[in-house]
Specification:
This protein is of the alpha+beta class. The protein has one domain. Helix content is 45%, strand content 27%. The strands form four sheets. The protein has a three-stranded antiparallel β-sheet with strand order 3-4-5, covered by helices on one side. Strands 6-7-10 form a three-stranded antiparallel β-sheet. Strands 1-2 form a two-stranded antiparallel sheet. A hairpin with a 2-residue loop joins strand 6 and strand 7. Helix 1 packs antiparallel against helix 2.
């Protein structure tokens, strides 16, 4: 009678069991590894996207602030061509110079500057790839703020997003920090009138008036011609401004007569 190899079968079953357990363990490990890698890749992608959006927001802020600076110098340069005055109120000229008087002077400079600044800023900010939809400009003294701004960011990658960025205040500059001051120009006509009265008895009216006019950001030269005083102002600093459709780094100049 032949005996059955019971021990060998038990050993075989035990071996097969170990192989199956090992296979399941390896399969589970591979599954967990794949899931971890997948989640890690997804988390990395999400982090990169968040960083990309934050970088874009910072770029928008920077571009808006630089646009403000350029728009401010551009606006003042344009207004300087009309001696900072509302042309429709000016009907006197000596040579090519506008004559300042009680109707023609820079008393309304803030309003004129605000309108010209809006034009210049609009042209600049609309050149940025992330398109601006809405914004407001606030002028308070020498401080200019761009508020309530909305930009549409379109990510051009295959899996790109359309994101709307909203800013309560996207940028703000104080022109005094860059060598411009609307107040000293706005009050210049009043100061000149006061200086002329004070220097009425002087043998050198032009020099006397020039010495009494104090400007922080402008060099001033006064010359006398017939019954007029001729004024030439030039900024102490250089600014970027457009001349004949070319951007130049130059001083701003204003000429007029009183």
């Amino acid at each position: 009678m032949k005996l059955k190899p019971i021990k060998n079968k038990k050993a075989m079953a035990f071996g097969i069991g170990l192989v199956l357990v090992a296979f399941l363990a390896i399969s589970l490990s591979l599954y967990l590894f794949v899931m971890v890698q997948k989640n890690s890749a997804q988390n990395t992608k999400t982090a990169q996207e968040i960083l990309s959006f934050e970088q874009e927001k910072q770029k928008i802020k920077y571009f808006s602030e630089e646009s403000e600076k350029l728009a401010a110098s551009e606006a003042l340069d344009v207004l300087a061509q009309d001696a900072l005055s509302k042309v429709s109120s000016c009907n006197q000229q000596i040579g090519s110079r506008i004559v300042w008087n009680d109707n023609c002077n820079p008393n309304n400079l803030n309003d004129l500057f605000y309108e010209q600044f809006k034009t210049e800023f609009s042209e600049l900010i609309n050149k940025y790839p992330t398109k601006i939809k809405n914004y407001e400009i606030v002028l308070q003294g020498n401080k200019i703020s761009v508020i309530n701004a909305v930009f549409d960011f379109i990510d051009n990658r295959k899996e790109g997003y359309n994101i709307t960025f909203k800013f309560d205040k996207v940028s703000e500059i104080n022109m005094q920090d860059y060598g411009l001051d609307l107040d000293e120009l706005k009050n210049l006509y009043i100061n000149i009138k006061g200086a002329k009265i004070s220097c009425a008895s002087s043998s050198d009216l032009a020099t006397c008036v020039q010495n009494k006019i104090t400007l922080q950001n402008w060099k001033i030269v006064v010359t006398e011609q017939a019954t007029y005083l001729l004024f030439d102002l030039e900024t102490n600093k250089h600014f970027f401004a457009t001349t004949a459709h070319q951007l130049e780094f130059k001083t701003l100049k204003i000429s007029f007569a009183v």
